[in-house]
């Protein structure tokens, strides 16, 4: 989904959310910020973390919105959660994945404050974005739970769509050697499956079983691939430099997909 493929409703949706959050700037100023965000999400190198992913997360937030206290703030956090992104090797090998949640959160607070959103509400959006680093919301924070669940919802896709998701993630990190990618991905999938639950909101619980089925199937396939790679090394052979330290998936330290 490129810049010319952006749904016509998308910019208006940003405007409504910003106004709902308390923005007092002119419609033109608000839409300029929204368009700049769309431009960020359509930048080169975004094979998965692109406009399609943003739309998917926004749609999932709407599905769970009845559980939120401040739905417009959750929507704005979705807009900003991957605003700053770099899948370059230096980022991936720093165990940060491509998303820079801290920088994206700071951008959200600065831009929303400049649009007249009350500081405490802009700071709330900032905090919601930062929470995606760990992806382990406090169960009592329903807004955070909904945002985290919406971001993970792709795991529960039907098999063919999940396959497309895997293709896009791999393409985003095509510069990483196969072994590094497989080792990092296996580590993330094992952490995901070790969680008591993947989804925190009551409505998000409906995605638990299909998500675990997809993740389990992917892990089984990658473990076989990893065993083949290790066999090719031979006994006592060292893995390639950087193996196990790369994080070709967003938020690797928190076991995000």
Indicate the topology:
Layout (H helix, E strand, L loop, with lengths): L7 H13 L6 H15 L9 H14 L6 H10 L8 H4 L8 H14 L4 H13 L10 H11 L6 H14 L5 H17 L13 H26 L24
Helix pairs in contact: 1-2, 1-4, 3-4, 3-8, 4-7, 4-8, 6-7, 10-11
Main CATH class of the largest domain: Mainly Alpha
Shape label = globular
Specify Rg, calculated over alpha carbons: 19 Å
Distance between the termini: 21 Å
CATH superfamily of the largest domain: 3'5'-cyclic nucleotide phosphodiesterase, catalytic domain
CATH architecture group name of the largest domain: Orthogonal Bundle
What is the element string, with H for helices and E for strands? HHHHHHHHHHH
| Largest sheet, strands/sense/barrel | none
Give the strand tally: 0
CATH third-tier fold name of the largest domain? Catalytic domain of cyclic nucleotide phosphodiesterase 4b2b
How many structural domains? Answer: 2
